[in-house]
Amino acid sequence: MSIDTLKNMVPDYAKDLKLNLGSLANEEELSEQQKWGTFLACALAGRNETVIRNIYAEATQNLSAEALNGAKAAAAIMGMNNIYYRFAHIATSKDYMTMPAKLRMNVIGNPGVDKMDFELWSLAVSAINGCGMCIDAHEKQLVDHGVTKTQIQAAVRIAATVQAISAVLDGENAMIGLNSDQIAQVA
């Protein structure tokens, strides 16, 4: 299992995704830890088992145990925070914006890896989960600490591609066993 295996699973109609995956695996704007941590955190956020297994196999070859754990922690904590803060941000009542969250988030303060790498992974997962408030908060931290906009864009490009491949493979899996008439009814 690997990125190449995953690329071979992407159907021809999604060739652009396959090409993007290949070029992002060779992305040079990010350090290896930033890149593979982003890939892993985004795969976990995308929830597709095939994508997770293949990216995890590649990530284990490129990340320390601490970085693997940090990427998983970023996906986990953002899975919670993105829901909470997206709610607080879009609720008509702005009272929620001033209320303490009362949710444990200790890993953000001590992720066990470089803090800016963790912030980058958190930003990428926040992009997948659609939390503008979290995107803005993480992007500000990154820029304030010298991470370039090009590096941030690279992480979000990874997020976009990994999420799209997760969706395509989920769709393909859902169509297994359907005949052409059933597929036409779904469409």
Sequence-ordered SSE layout with sheet pairings:
Elements: H1 3-9, H2 15-25, H3 32-46, H4 49-62, H5 65-90, H6 95-98, H7 106-109, H8 115-129, H9 132-144, H10 149-175, H11 180-186
Helix pairs in contact: 1-2, 2-10, 3-4, 3-5, 3-8, 3-10, 5-8, 8-9, 8-10
Task: Fill in the keyword field for this structure.
11 helices; mainly alpha; single chain; 187 residues; AhpD-like
Commentary on this structure:
The chain has 187 residues and is an all-alpha fold. 76% of the residues lie in helices and 0% in strands. The chain has one domain: AhpD-like (Up-down Bundle). It has 11 helices and no strands. Helix 3 (32-46) crosses helix 5 and helix 8 runs antiparallel to helix 9. The radius of gyration is 17 Å and the shape is globular.
Helical proportion, percent range: over 70%
Strand segment tally: 0
- Based on secondary structure, the structural category is mainly alpha
CATH class: Mainly Alpha
Strand content: under 5%
The CATH architecture can be given as Up-down Bundle
| CATH superfamily annotation | AhpD-like
Question: What distance lies between the first and last C-alpha atoms, to the nearest angstrom?
Answer: 32 Å
The CATH topology is given as AhpD-like
- Taking all residues together, what is the mean pLDDT? 95
